[in-house]
Amino acid sequence: MPELSNRITTLNNGGTDGWDVFYKARRRVAAGEKITELTIGEPDDKTDPEILEAMHQSAIGGHTGYAAVPGTPELREAVAKRVAAQSGVPTTSDNVLITPGAQAALFAAHLCACDAGDTALYIDPYYVTYPGSIRGAGAVPHAIVTAPENGFCPTAIQLSETPEASSLLINTPNNPTGTVYDANTLEAICGFVRDRDMWLISDEVYSTQVWEGAHISPRALPDMANRTLQIGSMSKSHAMTGSRVGWLIGPEEAIAHLADLAIVTTYGVPGYIQDAAVFALAQGKGLEDKHAKPFERRKNIAMRLLSGSKVIQVIPPMGAMYMMLDIRSTGLSGEEFAHRLLDERDIAVMPGESFGQAAAGHIRVAMTVDDQTFEQAISTLREFAESL
After folding, report:
1. Of these four, 26, 87, 156, 170, which has the most CB atoms within 10 Å of its CB?
2. Mean pLDDT of 162-175
3. Do the Cβ atoms of 176 and 352 come closer than 8 Å?
4. Which of 71, 84, 69 is nearest to 225 (CA)?
5. Chain-centre distance of CA 129, in angstroms?
6. How much is the pLDDT for 13?
7. Could you tell me the EC number(s) of this protein (predicted)?
């Protein structure tokens, strides 16, 4: 066959995509084995039946043809109102592009912010698709490696030592660490972005899951609304992962050009799914809290069960549906620990190395199984670590 493009063959920079343990666990599940999966951010609380009914009624009502590519007017308006209420920043439907999930928004944001060959900064630890998304957009990824001792937050000094770049990607509340950036951290980030006159790409898909502190959208800080591309999604807040509906918030001119990009890439999101998202958003904060509460409850379960361990150091999660555990005192890497935990105890977690250099020697635990199963898994995980 003809040669494949460098862009497509270098997405993972010659390495893996970071999902090896997950794939191994799924193969065993497919073979009929019982595995406790604490790997991906897939809420165990499924999409609310009323949302599915709204989707169904829209589909049988005929909203199955091409929908407006930037998003239906109803959903763009609903998202604009939600974002304005959360952030306090005036937001209209002209600031909103509806996308097939947050991943499409992430990719589009980098195509918007970066020309081919530009450097794009991101924080390490990071969600596993970040560097590949940047490479796919034709930019050059550059990680800012944080430290667990600083709560995995970037410092002003670290930011100042980076090369010239077109964009900086942040994620708060954070996957994989559960860190929620405080006002001082965000002020340092925004000051850096303003001084460099660059784009800030802010992944805020976990904004409804905050257990300590408060979520602050950087778009709300001075002179940031005109230089921030904010990513959101229905996946985590409303347990609609498979529906693939997200959004990108930005200046009107940027969104107009991004709508042109959507025409030649995704061509929008199905109308009946958008109608279901409108219905879901109309249910207000109560439904969002319903989907968030189990993760806070499980965070408390894990903190209790791991308290006093001399082998596992817990980085207390402030938000999101994950917790990061430091297992370096076992003498194993995160990769080794995760593979052995799966092989010897039938529990699947993600190695910290899947999320970058800063998380080496850690594991990420997704709190995405029922409370009883989660409690048993954490107890077994502690027993396994201490047996080493």
Report:
1. 170
2. 98
3. yes
4. 84
5. 9
6. 84
7. 2.6.1.-
Structural domains present in the chain = 6-46+286-387 (3.90.1150.10), 66-283 (3.40.640.10)
Neighbours of 159 (CB within 10 A): 19
From CA 208, how far away is CA 86, in angstroms rounded? 10
pLDDT at residue 18 tops 90: no
Burial class (CB in 10 A: 0-12, 13-18, 19+), 354: buried
Dihedral of CA atoms 182, 86, 103, 44 in degrees, nearest 10, equals: 90
**Distant-in-sequence contacts of 255-258, Cβ < 8 A, 24+ apart:** 255/70, 255/94, 255/95, 255/96, 255/97, 256/94, 257/112, 258/97, 258/108, 258/112
Q: In what order do the strands lie in the sheet with 322-326?
A: 36-38, 347-351, 362-366, 322-326, 313-315
C-alpha dihedral (78, 45, 240, 276), degrees to nearest 10: -50
pLDDT in tens, 233-261: 999 999 999 999 999 999 999 999 999 99
CA distance 142 to 93: 33
Q: In which order are the strands placed within the sheet that holds 140-145?
A: 96-99, 246-249, 228-233, 199-203, 167-171, 119-124, 140-145
In this structure, are residues 178 and 148 in contact, taking their beta carbons and an 8 Å threshold?
A: no
Task: Indicate the average pLDDT of the chain.
Answer: 96
Longest dimension (CA), the chain: 60
CB-hemisphere CA count at 13 Å for 262?
Answer: 27
Q: What is the DSSP string of 149-196?
A: GGTT---HHHHHTSPP-SEEEEESS-TTT-----HHHHHHHHHHHHHH
